């Protein structure tokens, strides 16, 4: 698994990036731009997961395999059920990343609604941990 060392104080910067993607996700939904909404949900989740891993471990995922990003996130506290739940939200979003960004089929409203739920839950989890 490829990772990159990051100073722990940078976790809040990654959380800020996640928040901006979350806000763009909402704006895109309001405009019925389902593709942009899903893509921003995915990037909200990636930035939130990076923020959490940096905060807990001082590293972030730097590879291409989505499974490794989820595994790293899960390793922050493998015995914690809340981490397992948050990992599932991350995995759901990473599973649609390629299709939403490069796929032949456009995203639909139901994709955007589901992606938004996953992104919100993961973001809220990370924000509550980092900013408590």
Averaged pLDDT, please?
95
Give me the number of helical elements.
Answer: 5
Q: Main beta sheet: strand number and arrangement?
A: 2 strands, antiparallel
Gyration radius from CA atoms, angstroms: 14 Å
| CATH fold title | Four Helix Bundle (Hemerythrin (Met), subunit A)
Report the sheet-strand fraction. Answer: under 5%
CATH architecture: Up-down Bundle
**Mind telling me the CATH class?**
Mainly Alpha
Strand segment count: 2
Going by helix content, strand content and strand pairing, the class is: mainly alpha
The helical percent reads over 70%
Bulk shape: globular
How many structurally independent domains?
Answer: 1
Strand order of the largest sheet: 1-2
- N- to C-terminal distance: 30 Å
H and E order? EHHEHHH
CATH superfamily: Nucleotidyltransferases  domain 2
Q: Unreliable runs, pLDDT <50, ≥5 residues?
A: none
Detailed description of the structure:
With 132 residues, this protein is mainly α. The chain has a single domain (3-130), classed as Nucleotidyltransferases  domain 2 (Four Helix Bundle (Hemerythrin (Met), subunit A), Up-down Bundle). The chain is built from five helices and two strands, in the order βααβααα. The chain has helices at residues 11-30, 34-57, 66-74, 81-102, 109-130, and strands spanning 3-5, 59-61. A two-stranded antiparallel ribbon has the order 1-2. Helix 1 (11-30) runs antiparallel to helix 2 (34-57), helix 2 (34-57) packs across helix 3 and helix 3 runs antiparallel to helix 4. The radius of gyration is 14 Å and the shape is globular.
